[in-house]
Amino acid sequence: MKMGFLQNDLQKLEDLGLHRSLKTLDSPQGREIILDNRRVLNFSSNDYLGLANDARIKAAALEAIEEYGLGSGASRLICGNMDPHEKLETELAHFKNTPSSLVYSSGYMANTGIIPALMDRHSVVLSDRLNHASIIDGIILSRAKLVRYPHADVQALEDVLKNLPATQHRLIVTDTVFSMDGDKAPLKEIVEIADRYEAMVMVDEAHAFGVLGQHGGGLVEELGVGDKVDIQMGTLSKAAGCFGAYACGTKILREYLINKSRSFIYTTAIPPSLAQAARMALKIIQEGDQLRRDLQEKADYLRAKLKAMGFDTMNSSTAIIPILVKDPAVAKVMSQHLFSQGILAQAIRPPTVPVGSARIRLTVMATHTQEDLDQLLNAIRTL
Ligand SMILES: *Cc1c(COP(=O)(O)O)cnc(C)c1O
User: Fold this and answer.
1) Residue having the nearest C-alpha atom to atom 6 of ligand 1
2) Atom 4, ligand 1: which residue's CA is nearest?
3) Of the CATH numbers 3.40.640.10, 3.30.470.20, 2.20.25.90, 3.40.50.720, which one belongs to the domain with range 55-286?
4) 179 given a catalytic annotation
5) Which atom belonging to ligand 1 lies closest to the Cα atom of 134?
6) H or E stretch including 246?
7) What does the pLDDT profile of the chain (383 residues) look like in tens digits?
8) Which of 193, 179, 189, 194 is nearest to 136 (CA)?
9) For residue 352, how far is its CA from the centre of ligand 1 (angstroms)?
10) pTM here?
11) Is 207 near ligand 1, meaning CB less than 6 Å away?
12) Which of 358, 363, 352, 357 lies closest to 136, judged by CA?
């Protein structure tokens, strides 16, 4: 019974209310989906702007398949680097107002590729306690010393920096919008401190790219701190409705990552159709002021109503709205009840969030209607 521990461990998860299983989507992503053969209103996707099933993006991908075929057939450095990849990177850099950019196959691969390229076992990485798992994995792969500072606590961050040897390479890394809490990083303060202690700054804009900032450039654009952030990472898989990720920064950074970043080097280039689709998404995002305003208004409406009903939405100020329930089993039952009412609102439980902070996590889309929001609120009232 050398594999017997699998069943035992799964049973333990079941007993703790932490067991997870897959549901199957039988429709495109969107505000309304068919999940496990049930039509439900979707409050769990990251498709904030409704671009995952956008006709213009689909057309761009289809056209590119006709022109370039599907697979890229090799890694970027061998012979998989096609014109769409280069164009996408040029446009991303221009959009983010940085000298250059490099595309990765996913956000997970970007974080597990960028951090180990820059840091080694002599370095230290200061990471917000609530940073995404891919950042933590990147730090572990780098073998750098990991210091997790309390969530958004700039004083604690400064205290750590103060006591580091002057010559030690140090990197501060933070999500800009925290994926499970929906709050924003205190990025203005972070770049100031980083400046004082000569620390590099890396941001993960996964939930901010396309959503925050006047042109959708993320929290960095909203706060106007682009020139003070050394590595701007974000994904093309959320608001952009595609797949893949980017690292924006100096030309030297790009050259360095091309030479040193293992998750960039040792993987096949993304399909050219995906690069073409992402270019179209970028265009739509740049012209998406109205979409972003709609999204923020809808999120603010929902948050205000939930607060008035007495729910704890934590420090959320974005399209991600948690309803804190603490007990994972309760969160699961609430999510199941909402599902039976035709609402998808996933329960988020440890280890995705800290123990004792299980929650229902709602995400609003620009394409949700007023009726959608009110239907959700009515279902919550019957909990
Ligand atoms: C989703 C997410 C990622 C991973 O991005 P993928 O493109 O889905 O691999 C990384 N960081 C954060 C903060 C995320 O929310």
Assistant:
1) 107
2) 107
3) 3.40.640.10
4) yes
5) 10
6) strand 245-249
7) 899 999 999 999 999 878 889 999 999 999 999 999 999 999 999 999 999 999 999 999 999 999 999 999 999 999 999 999 999 999 999 999 999 999 999 999 999 999 999 999 999 999 999 999 999 999 999 999 999 999 999 999 999 999 999 899 999 999 999 999 999 999 999 999 999 999 999 999 999 999 999 999 999 999 999 999 999 999 999 999 999 999 999 999 999 999 999 999 999 999 999 999 999 999 999 999 999 999 999 999 999 999 999 999 999 999 999 999 999 999 999 999 999 999 999 999 998 999 999 999 999 999 999 999 999 999 999 98
8) 179
9) 13
10) 0.97
11) yes
12) 352
